[in-house]
Amino acid sequence: MDSIADLHDDFILYITPEKFYIESISSGSELLVIDRVSQEISLQVNNGQIPQASSSKPICGLVGTIRLLAGPYLVVITKKRKVGTINGQTIWQVVDTEVISYTRTLLHLTENQMVQNRVYLSMIESVLSTPGLYFSYSYDITHTLQRLHNTTPEFLQMPLHERADPRFVWNAHLLRELSNQPELHRFCLPILHGFISINQCSLNGKAFIWTIVSRRCCFRAGTRLFTRGVDMQGNVANFVETEQIMEYNGDKSSFVQTRGSIPLFWNQLPNLKYKPKPRLNPNENHAEAFSRHFDTQIFNYGKQVLINLIDHRGPEDVLEKAFHDMVNQLGNSNIRYESFDFHAECRHMRWDRLSILIDRLAHEQDEFGCFLLTRDGTLVSQQDGVFRTNCIDCLDRTNVVQSMLAHRSLAQVLQKLGILRSGQRLEDQLGFETLFKQVWADNADVLSVQYSGTGALKTDFTRTGKRTKWGLLKDGLNSLTRYYKNNFADGFRQDAIDLFLGHYGIEEGECVTKPCPLDVEKGWKYITFPLVLLIAIAMFFANVITPSEYNTESLLYLLFWGSMVAVTFATIMIYGTEFVDYPKLCFLKAVFGVNSHHSVESDICRCDAGSESPFPLA
Predict the structure, then answer these.
(1) Does 266 fall in a domain?
(2) Are 521 and 602 in contact (CB under 8 A)?
(3) Whole-angstrom Cα distance, residue 184 to residue 40?
(4) Rounded Cα gap, residues 384 and 149, in angstroms
(5) CA–CA separation, 424 vs 414, rounded Å?
(6) Residue 557 and residue 437 share a domain
(7) Strand-pair category, 192-203 with 206-216
(8) Which of 419, 438, 462, 493 would bridge 414 by S-S if both were Cys, CB 3.0 to 4.6 A apart?
C-alpha cells in the first residue's frame, strides 16, 4: 500500500498552558499545533518551538475534538493492542483514551454548568470505554475486500478518513475540525466500532489467517429498547456488516452478511415490564422508508435474502406479518423473504432443527458465492448477494444463524483452495471447530454489550454446538441484567451515543440563558411510590419475623402490609414509564427517526449517506 494515504502512527503530546503540540514520532518534521485559547489548529514544521517546560505523554492517535459546556476537549488514544494483520496491514484495538480540556479552569461556568459538564464528560468517556473500537494506520477496515478490489487506484490514494465508508466511521463528528483542513489528513484516524478477531490457523499442515470483522453502523445507533426499526432515510437500528476473511499464501476470500432491525417504524419502549410489546406506528410512511432501506442494501450488496427469525405468535407476530406484507407490496425480484420461527422450531432444546433453515438457504448461498482472489491476481468469484438476518434485537438468534452460514461458506472455500482434503469435513477438525465457535460467540457477546448492555444469549450453542442447562442459567442472569439496564441505565447510554455522534450539539449559553436538557424533574410518583414500597416490604417482613406466635392482630398487620406491597407495586407498574431512565437529548430522533429541537444541523442528522454509497460490494 502506498504511503501517501497512510497515517502517522505514534505521537508525543506536549501540553503547555497555551497550546497542545502533537509531534509524529515517525515523521518528526510535522507538528500539529492546537491553540488552547483561540482554538486554531495548524500544521507546522518542527523547528524546536516546543517549550522545554511542557509536560509530555506518548499517544497512539487522535480521536478528535468535541465541545462540551466547558469548551472544546481533545480526545486521544493513550493505549492500543495489536489484533493482527489483514492483507498484510496491522489492525489495532483501542485500549485506553483520555479526554483533555482546552480550558485550564472551570471558573467561567456556573455551579449548575459544572455539574452538567461532568455529566456530559462522563457520557463521552462511557462511549470511549465501550469495548470494540478499532483502527488501522494503513488499511481501510471500513470496507470489505470485495469493495476495495473493485475501486480505482485513485481511490486507494485518498486519505483514509475521506475514502472510509461513512456508515462505519464512529468518530466522524469528532474529526470534523481536523478533516476540514486537507493538510491534516495524516492525523485523521477513522475509528470502527464493532468486533474484529484475527486468528492464525492450520489444517492439514497448511497455515492460513481466518478473520471476522463486524462493522456497526453509526447512522441509527443507540440502545436496545430506545432505538428500533427504521428512520425516514431508510437507516435501521443495530445494523451490522459482518465479513469473514480467509487468507492463504496470497489467496484471499471474503464472505459478507448483514443484520439489522426490521425496517418498519416500530418501537418497544421500556415501561418496567419484562418484555414490552412491540408496536407499529400507523402514522408513518412505512413503504417509503422500507423501499429506501432496500434500495441501499441492493446497491451496496446485490440480491437480498431476508431471514426473519422472530416469533409467529404472541407480541412479535404483528411485526412478522407487517414485514412479510411489505416485502410482497414492494415486489422487488432482488428480494426473497424467508421466515423461520426460531423459538417454535427449536423448542425443547431441539437446536438441531436449525439445519432445516440452512438447507432452505443452501441453493441461494451457492448462487451468491463469495469473493475469491488468487495470489496471481485472478478473480475467481465475487459475492452477488447477501443474507440479511434479523430477530427482535438482531443479537442472539441472529448470531447463531449467521455463524452457521459462515461455517458453510468457509468449508467450501477451504475445499476450493485444497486446505481441506477431498472427503474431509470442517466440523471434524476439532481444534479449528473449537476456535470457530469461540470467535463467533465472542462476536455475539461484544455486539450485544454494545447494543443491549450485556453479553449475548444462546452463546452456549454457538460455543459448544448444543444447548446446556448452564447456558440457560447464564441466559437468565443476562436477561435480568438487560432488564435493569434497559429500564434504568439506557437513557444515559442513548444520550451518550447521541452526543458522541453529533446528533446533539451543546448550544452557547446552555444552562444559563437556555434550558439544560439534562435538568428534567421527576414527578412526585418517582420518589413516593418506591419509598412506600420499600417501607411496606420492610414492615411486611418485620411482621413475619418478630411475632413469637401469630394472633389475629399480627395476621391483620401481615394482611395490611402485604396488601400495601401488592397495591404499590401494581401502581408502579401502571405508571411504569415515569420510573424509566428515558433519553433527554434526542429522544424523538432516537425512537422515531425524526429530529428533536435539540439536534444540530440537518446535514449531520440526515445520516443518509448510505443511500448514495459509491462503494458497492458487487
Answers:
(1) yes
(2) no
(3) 13
(4) 14
(5) 10
(6) no
(7) antiparallel
(8) 419
d(CA 364, CA 303): 10
- The cell numbers describing 513, all together, are 440563558
The residue among 482, 494, 512, 453 whose CA lies nearest residue 584 is 494
**pLDDT averaged per 10 residues, the chain (length 618):** 68 96 86 96 92 91 97 98 97 98 93 95 98 96 97 92 97 97 96 98 97 98 96 97 98 98 96 93 95 98 98 96 97 97 89 93 97 96 98 95 98 96 93 96 95 83 71 83 91 97 92 89 81 90 80 86 91 88 79 45 33 36
What b-and-e string marks burial along 134-163, b requiring 16 or more CB atoms within 10 Å of the CB?
Answer: bbbbbbbbbbbbbbbebbeeebeebbbbeb
pTM for the whole structure? 0.90
Sorted by sequence, the CB contacts under 8 Å of residue 618 that are 6+ apart come out as 146, 150, 301, 302, 382, 383, 384
Q: Which of 396, 427, 449 is the last residue of a domain?
A: 449
CA 462 to chain centre: 20
- Are 51 and 16 in contact by the 8 Å Cβ rule? The answer is yes
For the residues of 147-170, what is the DSSP string, one character each?
HHHTS-HHHHTS-HHHHS-GGG-T
Beta carbons of 219 and 199 less than 8 angstroms apart: no
- Decide which of 417, 449, 481 is a domain's last residue: 449
Report the candidate in 422, 425, 398, 93 with the shortest Cα–Cα distance to residue 260. 398
- If one counts every other C-beta atom within 10 angstroms of the C-beta of residue 603, the result is 8
Residues sharing a CB contact under 8 Å with residue 360, sequence separation 6 or more, in sequence order:
338, 340
Instruction: Look at the alpha carbons of 319, 322, 328, 331 in this order and tell me if their dihedral is positive or negative.
Output: negative
**Radius of gyration for the chain, computed over Cα atoms and rounded to the nearest angstrom:** 27
Residue 21 falls in which region: left (phi positive, over 0), alpha (psi -120 to 50) or beta: beta
Cα–Cα distance measured from residue 307 to residue 287, given in angstroms and rounded to the nearest whole number: 19
Is residue 396 in some structural domain? yes
Sign (positive/negative) of CA torsion 76, 81, 84, 90? positive
**CA-angle at 68, arms to 64 and 74, nearest 5°:** 25
Distance of CA 617 to the CA centre of its chain: 21
**198 bridge partner residues:** 211
The 3-state DSSP class for residue 215 equals strand
| Number of domains into which the chain is organized | 2
**Domain residue limits at 421:** 222-449
Kindly state whether residues 415 and 528 are assigned to the same domain: no
Largest CA distance in the chain: 91
How big is the chain, counted in residues?
618
Q: How far apart are CA 456 and CA 478, in angstroms?
A: 8
User: What is the DSSP code string of 316-383?
Assistant: GHHHHHHHHHHHHHH--TTEEEEE--HHHHTGGG-GGGHHHHHHHHHHHHHHH--EEE-TTS-EEE--
Is 269 strand, coil or helix? coil
